[in-house]
Write a structure and sequence with these properties.
This protein is an alpha+beta fold. The chain has one domain: Gcn5-related N-acetyltransferase (GNAT) (Aminopeptidase, 3-Layer(aba) Sandwich), CATH 3.40.630.30. The protein contains seven helices and nine strands. A hairpin with a 2-residue loop joins strand 1 and strand 2. Helix 3 packs parallel to helix 5.
């Protein structure tokens, strides 16, 4: 599959100043930027910085960032699903996973996450993909935001909706283990029905159990 990546950007005005929302950003450019110390949702900042550089170097990998001058204060990642997850079992070249989205506390509520997703979908190549995200409540910053799981889920859904992702049902055991967990997806305009059917089969792999 040919991996097309077209750079897009916008300037977001916030009460703390302007941020540049841009990408996909190359591994080389990411390496030259500072990674904010408050980006700690998934692992230590230096480790996560290395991880997004590695993702950007993958043929299909895409990293979009929110940048305050030369400091990354938010990012979103797109790559093929983990080989151990059910979403990789169909070996679909046109299925990408939104693996992580994170914004430092200072800029939460400023529309950074929504605009990271909007800029991501400005690239016409995204119409050739099914984009999925698996949301698990144990990854959510309930303590920092002081929201309960359902309030956070509502905020998260609104953010994903800004990128065109919608709720999809699934029988995935991990997602089904808590009612706040969910699968969301965006099906590109040029996706054929055959790929939609493949995706449906991945969503419901345990039908024989009922």
């Amino acid at each position: 599959m040919e991996y097309k990546k077209t750079y897009n950007a916008l300037v977001l005005n916030t009460v703390h100043g302007n941020l540049v929302i841009e990408g996909p950003v190359s591994a080389e450019d990411l390496s030259g930027l500072h990674f904010h110390k408050d980006l700690t949702s998934f692992r230590q900042p230096d480790q996560q910085h290395r991880a997004i550089v590695e993702i950007a170097d993958l043929p299909e990998g895409r990293i979009l960032i929110a940048r305050d001058l030369d400091t990354i204060v938010g990012y979103v990642t797109f790559l093929y699903p983990d080989p151990l997850e059910r979403w990789s079992q169909g070996k679909m070249e046109n299925l990408l996973e939104l693996g992580a989205i994170e914004v430092i506390p200072k800029y939460r509520g400023a529309g950074v996450g929504k605009n990271l997703l909007r800029v991501s979908m400005m690239d016409d190549a995204m119409e050739d993909y099914i984009i999925i995200t698996t949301e698990y409540y144990w990854h959510w910053d309930l303590k920092g935001t002081k929201l309960n799981v359902w309030e956070y889920r509502k905020v998260m859904e609104k953010m994903m909706n800004a990128g065109g992702l919608e709720y999809y049902a699934t029988d995935d055991p991990e997602i089904s283990s808590h009612p706040a967990n969910c699968l969301m997806a965006r099906i590109g305009k040029r996706i054929h029905q055959e790929s939609v059917q493949q995706f449906d089969q991945l969503r419901f792999m345990n039908r024989y159990m009922y």
